[in-house]
Design goal:
mainly alpha, two-stranded antiparallel sheet, 2 strands
Amino acid sequence: YFEQNGEYFIPAGQHREVLDLESFEPLYSVCDRFLNSVRLSQPSSISSGWVGAQLVHILTCLSQSLHQGGVPVTVPQLPK
């Protein structure tokens, strides 16, 4: 049995617990690791040059979309 609390449904007779979760943005994390590898001139232990090239390609497409007012842009797959 569930009770409605605003837009949420909570199991009846249960208490709610708020969990502190770290904010995580996957694209930011990948970019940060890539830039650190470039700055330090050290290869990444969890990635490769191909992944770095893919990241730059994705960021270029995102930039193109922003310059065009946010219109969708197709991100073609890079050859391996």
